[in-house]
């Protein structure tokens, strides 16, 4: 559905020094990025600020031409057939702008709908449907200059869906939102994928991506460092689990180190690459010494750690 | 297929037009304030010029000419506003979304053109009316058919002009500065003040300005005084519009290509 | 002493941000030149020979004064307004600065801005009409202009009160600005106007500021500060009272500035 082959992009920027001096510098934004997204899949590009996420999205959206490499949307080349590509895309470029402030939410939607070639009635019908499905409700009839960030984000998503395109691009759709609004937006995106839309999403929020995506790619300094399902990524990075076993005895005689935990009992903490084996070993030892076991916790590594590991190593 | 393409094009233009009108009407307080302020600006401009020719204050034909001059001043400055609308559209993240719909930028400008049209109509007629009432200017249009044709051509010309010019000022942080300069300079070099009011030497400079062949005919048709044959004027007018159209198309292409390469809209 | 430090702090910050917008400054300063030179060219064209440069001077310096007058009248309101919209006002109010100190500081900084503009335009205009000999008179006119504009602070306060209450004060400012421009004689002697407008013009402080300052440059210093002018200070007092009234009635009741 969506294919990105080895794209490179450099920007020229002018550095200003003082009032009059300035010099040119090139910024490498993308350094050979490739990935593929299947139909019905949610694929996330995660990376710190300035990693090249927006640049990637813009290249796929035909709003930027890559220096080298190609990308295909539904089989159409973004360089050679930009018009076809645009027909197949819905996009949220900014979650907080892109609308006329003196028009209402619904008027903005109708406006974009008509630009996609719909008649006014069609556009209005579609806009009303979308307003419901993003649960904008009555707010859709207020002018956009009164919108909160959350309402803007919902409107952006509605706009992205107005042409019913098979492939959706979201650039940081939940940026600046409170946790509840962000969750609503995530649920919406999930539903869209379940209905068969292909979704490419960028974010710098690991937790969000872990719960949402089928596959993720961590991008840093214009390069995809690692990709796969959230689970695969964690696995590939050999992230360690944390095992905690509580012993219900004030002063157990064990070969294992322990510290007194929250409840006042000794807790054995082990960082482990093979959590199941290690846990069984610990439990065996405690049992054979005749102590009782309280709580057992296995803390899985999060994608956040993967992210931190990748970004900090480079 | 071609028919479908055509219908979509019409729909886009209508959407832009309607958007422009709706936004214009939403700024109701501004509209009222502009209407109320118009008499004052008219007085200011008129007396500001008449300071140099105090004995013309009661000369109806001079006042009539100046009145048309002010009308066209309103027209030109309104159409220059189109240019800053594009900058705004970029800053608000709207233009990229519009490009994603496969619409052209000139059709996007139609929205602001709608505003300029209505505003010129409202404020412009008010100017004409006021000068008739206050100074007994004679705003009877001598050659209505040609007046309408010339006005239409001027609208096209300024649509292209604004399209080009808006791309040129896209990187300027305060586009209104350029607008302000042009809104004085263009009417001045376009014979908005009819050249029969001027001495020979001065009039002969103005005929070298391309704007003269767009604005000049309107004044001529209104006052009935044609310095050139009206059909010849029409042909020159059409030529000016065509040339501006071509320039606008070329510049738009270059800028768009730059935007796609550099990630920002710029000429250089 | 503390008040002076506060004033200096705000003035400096304001001036800095104003001067950073160089294009804005150029735009403002170029306006008198554009208008006056186009009018001069039209006038020359209509007369068939170069018009009297003293008329060019008349309009150039008049427009520069118009800008100073507008800044005096609206800067306080736009300062408070911007503060309201950006939320900066709340910070300032939570620091121990009285609203008056704040508004006063802002007035000083935007007057300075208008002053720079007035000097640039005025020096050019004076040299065109009177040669370098006119510069001394021009310098005196600076003082005259600012003293004569003090009553306009009254309007500034009234408009400040209005702009806190009304949602969209800009269109109102637009209207007031156009009215002041017509009746105060910035571009032409008010005697050209219909009688009613002449009377209104003479009842407002701007007329005196323009006439006095311009006659000073023209060398008629003896004519200034004649009879009606002292009455203009009535506006200052009225403005202060009106502002105080609104402050008590609206602003305090709501517990905050804003709508
Ligand atoms: N128009 C531009 N001109 C110059 N540099 C740019 C431009 N857009 C982005 N960049 C630079 O390219 C890099 C990648 O930016 P971007 O793709 O926006 O990152 P992200 O979206 O991941 O935060 C950054 O270093 C950024 O500063
Ligand atoms: Mg980004």
Please outline the helices and strands.
The complex is a heterotrimer of chains A (314), B (268) and C (259).
Chain A: E1 2-17, E2 21-37, E3 42-46, H1 53-60, E4 68-73, E5 76-77, H2 82-87, E6 89-92, H3 105-115, H4 120-133, H5 149-161, E7 167-171, H6 179-194, E8 198-203, H7 206-212, E9 215-220, E10 223-228, H8 230-236, E11 241-247, E12 259-260, E13 266-272, H9 275-288, E14 293-299, H10 303-313
Parallel strand pairs in A: 3-8, 3-9, 6-7, 7-8
Antiparallel strand pairs in A: 1-2, 1-4, 4-5, 9-10, 11-13, 11-14, 12-13
Helix pairs in contact in A: 3-4, 4-5
Chain B: H1 2-26, H2 28-50, H3 60-91, H4 94-100, H5 105-135, H6 144-168, H7 175-188, H8 200-206, H9 212-223, H10 230-262
Chain C: H1 2-20, H2 22-47, H3 53-86, H4 88-94, H5 99-130, H6 135-149, H7 152-165, H8 169-183, H9 195-202, H10 205-218, H11 233-254
Quickly describe the structure.
The complex is a heterotrimer of chains A (314), B (268) and C (259). Chain B is an all-alpha fold and 268 residues long.
Structure description:
The complex is a heterotrimer of chains A (314), B (268) and C (259). Chain A is of the alpha/beta class and 314 residues long. Chain A folds into 2 domains: 2-236, Rossmann fold (3-Layer(aba) Sandwich); 241-313, no CATH class. Chain A is 34% helix and 31% strand. In chain A, the strands form 3 sheets. Chain A has a 6-stranded mixed beta sheet, sandwiched between helices. The longest helix of chain A is centred in the middle third of the chain and has 16 residues, at 179-194. Chain A is globular, with a radius of gyration of 25 Å. Chain B has 268 residues and is mainly alpha-helical. Helix content of chain B is 78%, strand content 0%. Chain B is built from 10 helices and no strands. Chain B has helices spanning 2-26, 28-50, 60-91, 94-100, 105-135, 144-168, 175-188, 200-206, 212-223, 230-262. In chain B, α6 (144-168) runs antiparallel to α9 (212-223). The mean pLDDT of chain B is 85. Chain C is mostly helical. Chain C has one domain (2-254). Chain C is built from 11 helices and no strands. In chain C, α3 (53-86) runs antiparallel to α5 and α3 packs parallel to α7. Chain C is globular and about 60 Å long. At the B-C interface, α2 and α7 of B face α2, α3 and α8 of C. Magnesium ion is lined by residues 53-54, 171-172 of chain A.
């Amino acid at each position: 559905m969506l294919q990105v082959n080895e794209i490179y992009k450099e920007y020229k920027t002018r550095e200003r020094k003082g009032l009059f001096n300035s010099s040119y510098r090139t910024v490498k934004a993308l350094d050979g990025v490739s990935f593929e997204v299947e139909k019905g899949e949610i694929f996330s590009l995660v990376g710190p600020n300035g990693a090249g996420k927006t640049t990637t999205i813009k290249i796929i959206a035909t709003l930027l031409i890559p220096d080298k490499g190609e990308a295909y949307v539904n089989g159409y080349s973004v360089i050679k057939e930009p018009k076809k590509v645009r027909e197949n895309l819905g996009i949220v470029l900014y979650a907080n702008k892109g609308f006329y402030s003196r028009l209402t939410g619904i008027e903005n939607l109708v406006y974009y709908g008509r630009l996609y070639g719909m008649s006014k009635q069609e556009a209005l019908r579609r806009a009303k449907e979308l307003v419901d499905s993003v649960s904008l409700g009555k707010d859709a009839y207020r002018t956009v200059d009164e919108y909160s960030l959350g309402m803007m984000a919902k409107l952006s998503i509605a706009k992205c869906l107005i042409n019913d395109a098979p492939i959706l691009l979201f650039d940081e759709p939940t940026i600046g939102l409170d946790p509840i609004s962000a969750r609503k937006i995530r649920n919406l995106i999930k539903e869209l994928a379940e209905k068969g839309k292909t979704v490419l999403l960028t974010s710098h929020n690991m937790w969000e991506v872990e719960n949402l995506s089928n596959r993720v790619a961590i991008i840093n300094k214009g390069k995809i460092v690692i990709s796969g399902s959230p689970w695969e990524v964690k696995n590939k990075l050999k992230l360690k689990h944390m095992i905690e076993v509580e012993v219900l005895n004030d002063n157990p005689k064990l070969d294992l180190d322990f510290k007194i935990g929250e409840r006042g009992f000794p807790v054995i903490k082990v960082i482990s690459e093979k959590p199941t084996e290690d846990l069984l070993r610990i439990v065996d030892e405690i049992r054979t010494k005749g102590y009782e076991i309280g709580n057992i916790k296995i803390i899985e590594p999060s994608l956040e750690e993967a992210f931190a590991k990748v970004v900090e190593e480079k | 297929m071609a028919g479908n393409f055509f219908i979509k094009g019409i729909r886009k233009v209508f959407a832009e037009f309607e958007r422009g009108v709706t936004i214009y009407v939403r700024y109701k307080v501004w509209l009222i304030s502009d209407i109320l302020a118009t008499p004052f600006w008219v007085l200011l401009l008129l007396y500001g010029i008449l300071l140099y020719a105090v004995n013309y204050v009661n000369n109806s034909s001079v006042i009539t000419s100046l009145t048309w001059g002010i009308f066209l001043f309103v027209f030109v400055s309104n159409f220059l506003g189109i240019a800053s609308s594009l900058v705004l559209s970029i800053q608000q993240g709207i233009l990229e979304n519009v490009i994603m719909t496969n619409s052209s930028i000139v059709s996007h400008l139609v929205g602001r053109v709608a505003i300029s049209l209505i505003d010129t109509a409202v404020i412009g007629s008010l100017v004409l009316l006021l000068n008739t009432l206050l100074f007994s200017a004679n705003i009877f249009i001598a050659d209505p058919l040609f007046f309408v044709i010339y006005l239409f051509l001027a609208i096209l010309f300024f649509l292209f002009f604004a399209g080009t010019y808006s791309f040129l000022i896209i990187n300027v942080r305060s586009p209104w500065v350029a607008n302000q300069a042009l809104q004085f300079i263009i009417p001045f070099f376009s014979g908005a003040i009819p050249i029969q009011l001027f001495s020979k030497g001065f009039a002969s400079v103005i005929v070298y300005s391309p704007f003269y062949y767009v604005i000049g005919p309107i004044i001529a048709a209104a006052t009935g005084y044609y310095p050139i044959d009206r059909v010849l004027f029409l042909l020159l007018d059409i030529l000016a519009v065509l040339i501006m159209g071509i320039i606008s198309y070329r510049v738009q292409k270059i800028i768009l290509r730059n935007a796609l390469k550099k990630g920002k809209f710029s000429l250089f | 002493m503390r008040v002076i430090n506060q004033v200096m702090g705000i003035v400096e910050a304001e001036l800095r941000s104003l001067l950073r917008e160089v294009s804005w400054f150029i735009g403002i300063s170029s306006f008198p030149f554009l208008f006056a030179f186009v009018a001069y060219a039209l006038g020359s064209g209509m007369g068939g020979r170069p018009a009297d440069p003293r008329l060019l001077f008349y309009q150039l310096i008049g427009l520069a004064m118009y800008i100073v007058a507008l800044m005096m009248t609206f800067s306080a309101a736009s300062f408070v307004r911007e503060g309201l919209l950006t939320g900066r006002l709340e910070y300032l109010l939570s620091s121990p600065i009285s609203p008056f100190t704040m508004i006063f500081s802002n007035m000083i900084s935007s007057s300075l801005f208008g002053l720079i503009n007035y000097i640039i335009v005025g020096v050019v205009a004076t040299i065109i009409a009177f040669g370098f000999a006119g510069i001394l008179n021009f310098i005196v006119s600076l003082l005259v202009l600012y003293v004569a504009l003090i009553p306009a602070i009254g309007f500034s306060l009234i408009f400040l009160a209005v702009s806190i209450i009304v949602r969209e004060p800009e269109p109102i400012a637009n209207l007031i600005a156009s009215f002041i421009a017509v009746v105060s004689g910035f571009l032409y002697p008010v005697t050209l106007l219909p009688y009613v407008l002449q009377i209104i013009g003479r009842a407002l402080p701007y007329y005196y500021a323009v006439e006095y300052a311009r006659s000073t440059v023209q060398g008629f210093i003896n004519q200034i500060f004649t009879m009606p002018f002292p009455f203009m200070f009535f506006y200052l007092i009225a403005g202060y009272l009106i502002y105080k009234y609104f402050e008590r009635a609206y602003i305090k009741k709501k517990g905050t500035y804003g709508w």
